[in-house]
Amino acid sequence: MDFLNAVVALSNYVVVPAMAYGSQLALGALGVTLIYGILRFSNFAHGDTMAFGTMAVVMVTWAFQAMGVSIAPLPTALLALPFGIAICAALVLGTDRLVYRFYRAQKAKPVILVIVSMGVMFVLNGLVRFIIGVDDQRFGDGARLILSARDFKKMTGLDEGLVIKTSQGLTVLTAVIVVAWLYWFLTHTRSGKSMRAYSDNEDLALLSGINPERVVMITWIIVAALATIAGTLYGLDKSFKPFTYFQLLLPIFAAAIVGGLGSPLGAIAGGFVIAFSEVTVTYAWKKVLVYLLPEGLEPTGLVQLLSTDYKFAVSFVILLIVLLFRPTGLFAGKSV
Amino acid sequence: MNQMSKYRAPFLFGLVAVAILGTGFLQSWNSALLIVNMGLVSAVMALGVNLQWGFAGLFNVGVVGFLALGGLATVLTSMPPVAEAWSAGGLRILAGLALGAATLTLAVITFKHMQKSRTRTAALLVILVGGFFLFRFVFDGGVAAVEAVNPAATGYLGGLGLPVLLAWPMGGVLAAGAAWLIGKTALGLRSDYLAIATLGIAEIIIAVMKNEDWLARGVKNVIGLPRPVPYEVDLQSDPAFVASAANLGIDPVTASTLYVKLGYMALFTVVLLILFWMAQRALHSPWGRMMRAIRDNEVAANAMGKDVTARHLQVFILGSAVCGIAGAMMTTLDGQLTPGSYQPLRYTFLIWVMVIVGGSGNNLGSILGGMLIWFLWVQVEPMGHFLLGLITAGMADGSALKSHLLDSAAHMRLLTMGLILLLVLRFSPRGLIPEE
Question: Which of B132, B192, B203 sits opposite A110 (nearest CB)?
């Protein structure tokens, strides 16, 4: 019984939150890694693209809520998601047309594109703050929990409760669907295949008649969709605050690099590696250990390895370790 | 290559001077001097980043971390030591840190001297895990004891109680030490990876400064740092000063604030000129030519027998040290250390805008970029208010859109900085004063 309680406590405080956070990071890292694979630069504006897409979703959600449209028990934001994706795609395509295309035509060095993306980051950051402000915005509605602690305890008769929030369930489910779709798209459609070809060998792809501008356009649309979905799920799970999204840039990049930049599979693996390590290292293990250890040996402290304020530090220590021992990441990424 | 007009740099500097004088005449001389002082500090930061990026092509986006270390150095050098805290747990903290360092060293030695095997992995695990718990056991006790000492006012170990001007070179040394550690591990990485690694390390430095209260009070901030210039109140009660202010026709309060700011300005100008002279000498020396050769073609420079990694490490340390000095100067100017205020957008990416806009690879350009962008950063907000005031003038008072637009004026500066960066990169990619 104690062992089962320990397992439930562990799932409740570590596994479930880390699964949700990992899915959000994985979706974000997929966007970063696709841009790196196709456009060949690290997009510093990705966090702010996520913020912009989420902002669009939030505003459409509010409009729906005002009109009384709802798909309860699911959050209205899901209904607003396609509109948010469309707005975000329009934005990134506009940015590409106005900003990035010029440097692509010049065949500018990747590092110049990174600096350019810094400029885009500033503009998007300012734009989002300008439109929606800097405060926390809550936009989740519908049922809050899939499984409440009380129901779980009644069902199983255990002392520990397991809580699964709707947003967490939705996050994992959506992530699975999106990743499966992306996999199918990249391996089974003409556009997906041409994207992979372009990423593997640009010259050869051009020689075989692939239109680079089309590949780039499709990439940006997919990236906008991934960013908006990741951002919306994160916002539903926690809350929407522009500055948090800028900070998310760090774990997202860590996930993409740990997995291997340019490798979609790696991005997913990296997202979960980062999320699980952040959560386990900053979790206070006392509760689990009290169940597992015999009486008398129970810990007196919280048994928290690091305070939660260091969670970003955790992702970077992992990043550094992976880079030192496997310089191209877990799933051999590329380097331009 | 088109030759740059020799009047270009003086003209641009003249423009910045006119802008600042305009601030003096239209707003107040106090705000003008504030802009100059922070502009000078920004120019030093830009010089540091230019050493790394302009000279050697190193992509360091961890500037804010080195600035924060400079700020930390100011506290550690100039604040008086807290004797009570030292006796409560100072030695225990030092012992804990030594244990932590010893654990890491032992792990590295084991890793290097044992064959790759299961035994090695097991030994490493034992050393790291055991060392970690030992470290936490010794260290946490010391921290708790130190932080319990009068937490409202001190609760930290304090500094060395030395003159605050010494903190500036100390900031450089501290930042250089950190840069050596970082460079040893991260400089082998390619440009994009190095960027992310430095971004993360800066975040770690800030996190440590925010959370380790025993070191510099964390987010409780250290206030009332000693100053290298006199205090306004002292000046105002000094009859000689009041008399000379009256001679100039300024009231003593304004005169004292101006006098203090002019004092800072003189100190900052001296530091900036020394660093600028050194950077210019370095740029035109054989060493500078070698750095640029490495920047432009690493493979060729390597084939010529240049040790690329060692040179990169060298210039990374030098540039970071300059950033550390600038960080110490900034904290001295503020008179307080507030770890919560170190934002990457403001202290890393804005410095990058300064370097790129000024002209990467050109020291004079970096100084210009530092002054100009800082001026804009300060003045865009009032300009935004004015502009939005014009736009919304025709709207009905009390309309939601009007009040929203007016409230949002504060966010104009990020937008403007991004636009400036994008426009410069597009139409004048080598900056306002390009590299010679």
Answer: B192
Render pLDDT for B63-75 as a digit per residue (tens, 0 to 9): 999 999 999 999 9
Find the mean pLDDT for residues B84-89.
89
Terminal CA-to-CA distance of chain A, rounded, Å?
Answer: 54
> What is the phi-psi region of residue A329: left when phi exceeds 0, alpha when psi lies from -120 to 50, beta otherwise?
left
d(CA B36, CA B23): 11
CB B198 within 8 A of CB B62: yes
d(CA B375, CA B27): 13
For residues B436 and B434, give the distance between their C-alpha atoms in angstroms, rounded to a whole number: 6
> Is A333 domain-assigned?
no
Kindly list the residues from chain B whose CB atom is less than 8 angstroms away from the CB atom of residue A99.
422, 426
**Coil, helix or strand at residue B128:** helix
Residue A336 lies in a domain: no
- Name the B residues in 58-97 with CB < 8 Å from any A CB: 59
CA distance A5 to A159: 7
Across the interface, of B185, B408, B422, the residue whose CB is closest to A320 is B185
Please indicate, yes or no, if residue A11 is contained in any of the structural domains. Answer: yes
* Distance of alpha carbon A234 from alpha carbon A36, whole angstroms: 23
Alpha-carbon span A6 to A298, nearest angstrom? 13
Give the total residue count for chain B: 436
Q: What is the CB neighbour count within 10 angstroms for residue A234?
A: 26
Pairing of the two strands B336-337 and A145-147: unpaired
> Is the Cα dihedral B111, B113, B115, B121 positive or negative?
negative
Complex prediction ipTM? 0.90
pLDDT digits (tens, 9 = 90+) for A158-184: 888 888 999 999 999 999 999 999 999
Handedness of CA A101, A104, A105, A109 (dihedral sign): positive
Q: Which residues of B touch A125 (CB under 8 A)?
A: 345, 414, 418
Total structural domains within chain A: 1
Q: Which of B50, B52, B422 to mutate to test the interface with A (most CBs of A within 10 A)?
A: B422
Structural domain containing residue A197: 2-325
Mean pLDDT for chain A overall:
89
Q: Which domain CATH number covers A262?
A: 1.10.3470
Specify if A335 maps to a domain: no
H-state helical runs in chain A: 2-10, 16-38, 46-67, 77-95, 101-106, 110-132, 149-156, 166-188, 190-200, 202-207, 212-237, 242-259, 264-282, 286-292, 311-325
Is residue A267 scored above 60 in pLDDT? yes
Q: pLDDT per residue over A10-28, tens digit each?
A: 888 899 999 999 999 999 9
Say if CB B42 and CB B272 are below 8 A apart: no
Chain A CB contacts of B211 under 8 Å are: 307, 309-310
